[in-house]
Amino acid sequence: MVMNQDFYKKLTEIVSIENIQMDEPMSKHTTFKTGGNADFLVIPQNKEEMIKFLNIEKEGEYLWHPIMEIRKREVICII
Question: For the chain, which terminal residue's Cβ has fewer other Cβ atoms within 10 angstroms, N or C?
């Protein structure tokens, strides 16, 4: 995995380190236990964190995919 330290630093300014996973296997987060590793798995804790995350994403080269866990009402952003 290519680590983008600048992007990671931006993420830690928005979301606490505990809510950022690097090189996270997506099989842990899917019903059928499939999927490769995400460079970053980001779990914003509130609306403000999500908005800030979306704003830094516009500047970057990363693609992200939102996944919503309805029961827990959390949004996981996979990069």
Answer: N
Helix (H) / strand (E) element for 75: namely strand 74-78
Q: What is the C-alpha end-to-end distance of the chain, expressed in Å?
A: 12
The gap from C-alpha 3 to its chain's centroid, in whole angstroms, comes to 14
Give the pTM.
Answer: 0.71
- Find the length of the chain: 79
Q: What is the DSSP letter of 4?
A: -
What is the SS3 assignment for 56? helix
Distance of alpha carbon 15 from alpha carbon 36, whole angstroms: 23
Dist. CA 8–CA 30, nearest whole Å: 24
Task: Give the Å distances, CA to CA, from 36 to 7, 40, 49, 79.
Answer: 20, 12, 26, 12
- Listing from the earlier edge strand, what are the strands of the sheet with 65-69? 20-25, 37-42, 74-78, 65-69
